[in-house]
């Protein structure tokens, strides 16, 4: 099992924009309304902090590899190499480069019409990290940090996310 996790602030930001693009999801007039629901577990897909907390129980199992979105953005080649090794897939240098090239956000966005049809533009918006800084108020940032510390900071997944967010920044 490959478990891909992401900074909860960017998850909230991404879900906010995603929900605005799909008629079947609740639509929010403002970021503040969305943030309130995100933090009070009123999302149709559940609570991200509970998701991380639940998965933290299984991260020691040898059939689970955890990687962060931020790790992949920082060094996609190393991430692909580690994922291939985890699954026992030998890759030549050429194959590795092909996967790295095709898995770039730009490449996936460019091909999203073929791979995801009409949903391509909804699924592939920016693909960056730290976009949350464009939406979060200082108060919202502090609230999310507090919940992160209370709920998942002490777990293995929380430590992995915290390292990526604060030690690499």
TrEMBL record:
<keyword id="KW-0808">Transferase</keyword>
<comment type="similarity">
    <text>Belongs to the sulfotransferase 1 family.</text>
</comment>
<dbReference type="InterPro" id="IPR000863">
    <property type="entry name" value="Sulfotransferase_dom"/>
</dbReference>
<dbReference type="Pfam" id="PF00685">
    <property type="entry name" value="Sulfotransfer_1"/>
</dbReference>
<feature type="domain" description="Sulfotransferase">
    <location>
        <begin position="1"/>
        <end position="155"/>
    </location>
</feature>
<protein>
    <recommendedName>
        <fullName>Sulfotransferase</fullName>
        <ecNumber>2.8.2.-</ecNumber>
    </recommendedName>
</protein>
<dbReference type="GO" id="GO:0008146">
    <property type="term" value="F:sulfotransferase activity"/>
</dbReference>
<dbReference type="InterPro" id="IPR027417">
    <property type="entry name" value="P-loop_NTPase"/>
</dbReference>
């Amino acid at each position: 099992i490959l478990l891909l996790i992401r900074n909860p602030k960017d998850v909230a930001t991404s879900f906010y924009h995603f929900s605005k693009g799909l008629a079947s999801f609740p639509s929010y007039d403002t970021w503040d309304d969305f943030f309130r629901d995100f933090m009070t577990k009123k999302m149709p897909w559940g609570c991200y902090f509970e998701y991380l907390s639940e998965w933290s129980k299984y991260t020691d199992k040898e059939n689970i590899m955890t990687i962060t979105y931020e790790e992949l953005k920082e060094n996609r080649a190393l991430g692909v190499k580690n994922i291939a090794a985890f699954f026992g897939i030998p890759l030549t240098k050429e194959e590795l480069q092909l996967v790295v090239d095709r898995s770039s956000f730009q490449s996936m966005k460019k091909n999203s019409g073929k791979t995801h049809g009409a949903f391509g533009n909804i699924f592939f918006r920016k693909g960056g990290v730290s976009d949350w800084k464009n939406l979060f108020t200082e108060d919202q940032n502090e609230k999310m940090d507090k919940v992160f510390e209370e709920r998942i900071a002490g777990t293995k997944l929380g430590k992995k996310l915290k390292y990526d967010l604060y030690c690499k920044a």
